[in-house]
Write a structure and sequence with these properties.
Strand content: 5-15%
Order of helices and strands: EHEHEHEHHEHEHEHHEHHHH
Radius of gyration: 24 Å
Largest sheet: 8 strands, parallel, barrel
Number of strands: 8
Distance between the termini: 32 Å
Shape: elongated
Structural class: alpha/beta
Strand order of the largest sheet: 1-2-3-4-5-6-7-8
Number of helices: 13
Bound molecules: phosphoenolpyruvate, manganese (II) ion
């Protein structure tokens, strides 16, 4: 299936500035909160003011947003600051209300992106409008759903499209609210390079402490912007209070960010990097040869097991391999997470090799 998208690169708003900054409260709560937050953010160079009006809450009985009464507050924020204003839409009614009240930009939330019916309905309602749309990744780590949502919008003529990386839901202990799984937005960028990707550190982290490091990683991976929650008084926020920054805290975070060059510039830099890259290429070749040799042994094992009528998988052996390799890798300074991933893949491919020999 083709990943092709038609993107209006010239008109992607504020794209020449890096990072593109989208900030504002998780939810619009009162006219005063909206306008005061917007005024403080405008002074920091924020390009787009965000505020949720219809809030997709995991559990009922929590604050679900102010609804349409808040739309004029956003308009006032826009008039008083000159910032573009954005809100989340999840159905056709939201789209109509947002457009009728002069909302400049809309975003599709993570729960909605995961539902192709909902995305298609929103796309159909947007046909004929020339409005920028930010598409958050689906809550589950499925790049196809993410690309699919971008394509549904593109097919009705939306050419100002952005992707928002907000992490992926996870069952179990994690230091993140939604672990970032950076390999997914990196792959998105490889497959559809014309769509800018902004990172939403707020929903990735769920608290203030990791926001800076996630934002810095996003910049070091050359993503295009930050979509970050801020509130004039986070302690009193009605949703996501732990993760929202005051405008002053946002200012400190932005000042600390180091923006590195994304192009390799001088001949000297190029020369140094090329030397190192040549070494990487050689090591990769070596690595491939080593893995192939290991697979050859797996084939021999397969032949032996076939002759003796022994099953391919012996769970004890696999557990002891993993334990042993983890110990050794730890001593070499490599993370458990990485080694587990690598050895699971190697083990699976060994099974495939044995399987081919046996059957
Ligand atoms: C939000 O941006 O406030 C929001 C609800 O985000 P997500 O869809 O990423 O959970
Ligand atoms: Mn939020």
């Amino acid at each position: 299936m083709s990943d092709e998208l038609i993107i209006n690169k010239e008109e992607l708003c504020c794209h020449s500035e890096r990072p593109l900054l989208i900030s504002g409260p998780c939810s619009a709560e009162s006219e005063k909160q909206v306008v005061e937050t917007a005024k403080a953010l405008a002074g920091l160079g924020v390009n787009i003011f965000r505020a949720g009006i219809w809030k997709p809450r995991t559990r009922p009985g929590t604050f679900e947003g102010m609804g349409s009464v808040a739309l004029p507050w956003l308009r006032r924020a826009k008039e008083e600051t000159g910032m573009l204003v954005a809100t989340e839409v999840a159905n056709v009614w939201h789209v109509k209300e947002a457009i009728n009240h002069g909302i400049d930009i809309i975003w599709i939330g993570a729960r909605t992106t995961a539902n192709p019916f909902a995305v298609q309905e929103i796309a159909d309602a947007l046909r004929g409008y020339d409005i920028p749309v930010f598409v958050k990744n689906p809550i589950n780590p499925d790049i196809e759903l993410w690309i699919g949502a971008l394509q549904r919008l593109n097919k009705v003529g939306i050419e100002k499209l952005y992707a928002v990386h907000r992490g992926f839901s996870y069952y179990g202990e994690s230091s993140y609210r939604n672990p970032p799984q950076w390999e997914i937005p990196i792959e998105l960028k490889r497959r559809i390079p014309d769509v800018p990707i902004v990172t939403d550190p707020s929903h990735i982290c769920g608290s203030k402490d990791l926001l800076f490091s996630v934002s810095q990683t996003a910049m070091d991976l050359d993503f295009d912007g930050l979509f970050i929650e801020s509130h004039i008084n986070p302690e009193e926020a009605l949703s996501d209070k732990e993760q929202q920054l005051t405008p002053d805290e946002l200012s400190v975070l932005l000042d600390r960010l180091i923006l590195r060059n994304h192009d390799v510039e001088s001949a000297k830099q190029l020369e140094n990097l090329e030397g190192l890259r040549r070494q990487i290429d050689q090591w990769d070749e070596e690595l491939l040869r080593i893995i192939r040799s290991r697979m050859a042994i797996s084939e021999q094992i397969g032949e032996y097991k076939k002759k003796e009528g022994i099953t391919i998988l012996q769970t004890n052996r696999w557990s002891s391999i993993l334990e042993d390799r983890l110990l050794k890798a730890r001593e070499m300074g490599m993370s458990d997470q990485f080694i587990i991933k690598v050895f699971k893949q190697i083990h699976q491919e060994s099974i495939n090799f044995q399987n081919r020999v046996m059957n």
